Amino acid sequence: MSVFDWIRPTFYKNRWYIATGVFCLIVVDMLQLVVPRIVKHAIDGLTALSIPSDRLSLYGLWIVAIALVMGALRYVWRRCLIGMSREVEEELRNRLFGHVQTLSAAYFDRMKTGDIMAHATNDITHIRMAVGMGVVALTDAVVMGFAAIGFMLYIHVELTLWVMLPMPLIVFGTRFFSRRMHARYQRVQAAFSNLTEAIREVFTAIRLVKSHHTHDFEMERIASHSKAYIDENIALVRITGSLFPMMVFFSNISLVLILYVGGRNTIFQRITPGDFVAFISYLGLLTWPMMAMGWVTNLIQRGKASLDRIDRILRTSPDIDDPKSPLATGIAHGHVAFEHVTMAYPASEASSGKPVLSDIDLDVPAGTFVGIAGPPGSGKTTLISLIPRLYDPTSGEIRIDGVSNRRYSLEGLRSHIAFLPQEPFLFAGTIRENILMAKDGIGDDAVWEAVRMAGLETTVRSFPDGLDTVVGEKGVMLSGGQKQRVALARCFIGHPKLLLLDDPVSQVDVEIGQRILQSIRSRIPAATVILVSHRMSALRDADRIVVLDRGRIIESGSHASLMATNGYYASVYRLQEIEEYRHAR
Fold first, then answer.
1. Based on the structure, what is the number of domains in the chain?
2. Closest CA to 154 of 257, 40, 268, 58
3. Which of 155, 228, 390, 401 reaches 20 to 30 Å from 25, CA-CA?
4. What pTM does this model have?
5. pLDDT digits (tens, 9 = 90+) for 97-125
6. Cα 348 versus chain centre, distance
7. Distance, CA of 480 to CA of 387 (rounded, Å)
8. 340 phi-psi bin (left φ>0, alpha ψ -120 to 50, beta other)
9. End-of-domain residue from the set 314, 344, 366
10. E strand or H helix that includes residue 204
11. pLDDT in tens, 490-526
12. Which range marks the domain in which residue 466 is found?
């Protein structure tokens, strides 16, 4: 499959628009070639002192009429060809965005956000320029170039051959520089991606930068990326800066040859003065195709480099996808079972490649409340991430209602699961929009019910706009606890079969946290709840508490039984109990 297959369907769909645009462009080029012929007749008549004034007026009217027709046709070809390039841009961006959303979580672990943003903006813009103005310039170069040469041959064959002497050198130079330009464009785009990611990271963490007063450090870091981007562009300019002067140099050599050879032919009356002026005009028209070849080469190489980068993403297959024959039904009850599950992330800068979960056997009956505890890095978040298939285990099986979770379609699996990540995320919309998350057919009563379950009703009703309060980028208008509870309310919409909550009450006080957990048990009694928490009091009422350490289950049982064993859970619970008592005083 060629990289051009991504844009070929748009070309085929717009083939009549493209044909109309190219036709109008060709007509414009032909009309430009007529004007020197009119000028030639006018000059010959003036030189012979035999042209009447009305004939001169007629020639002027002809030139004005041609200019008007060319103006109208230029509008049509720009509307067709440039409009087509905008459609290519839109469809390619939509295809890229749609495909990126299908990629697995592991892809985003190793891919920079700034790199993806550069693909979706800068690269697609370059592709649009290549298929829009690139088509225009290429058509101009071919049609205008060959037609101008044809008219020049008609005037004087020998003089045309003299003018054509530098042409092979232009072709050779273009091929020589184009190979180097493609490689340089790849490096420029990579540097732009790094710069975009660095700037995005600083603006995202601007409050942290301000609070730690690291402005100078971040400025130096951005300046370093910016300099690398500039250096790559300067290296590119060394190539493009050599290509265009070369085109101009050889064009001027052709002009020198015309002045010398054509001037002598005019003096010896082998051609008329009008032919001589027309010949120079045609050389001027031929100079544009010669220049355009350099510009087209520039556009196409930049667009090709960008299309290669887009192609690498579009050819990336998701690590996790729907099975070939998915189950017709989704989750019915919510019984979860881990069978000898081992999980290791691929080795990278952030991961050693060692297992973060080892031989996990865990049974969670439908409708039960299971708490997951353990020290940081013990594998708690990874454990619950495997259930909705954000990742797949390295070995072992996860069954839901007795069926491997790999046999469900991703939609059938995830539509019955509510997942609250450790770091809740809010979009820059209203509270209502953040809770509903594009779910249709859900009224205000259900939204308020979810708000009440998240312990947020009093807060929301205190806002002048209530549910329509705009939370700002990443929920900046809300406190940490309020953001967490909005994200939690999102999980209660639609009464899911499985609730996977990663530290859902870490940013609220103990009393509110207990009310939220009691509300979950009383209002969604049929749901299976798996709750990860570092706050042991949040797990006290769980039907079963599982303690992980270094990827293995080291303790399992009820609150009472674990307290009796005096293991990790009991010791941490007692320490936290003392801390909570001190804060309460």
1. 2
2. 40
3. 155
4. 0.73
5. 888 888 888 888 887 777 788 788 888 88
6. 23
7. 27
8. left
9. 314
10. helix 167-204
11. 888 877 889 999 888 777 777 777 888 887 777 677 7
12. 423-495
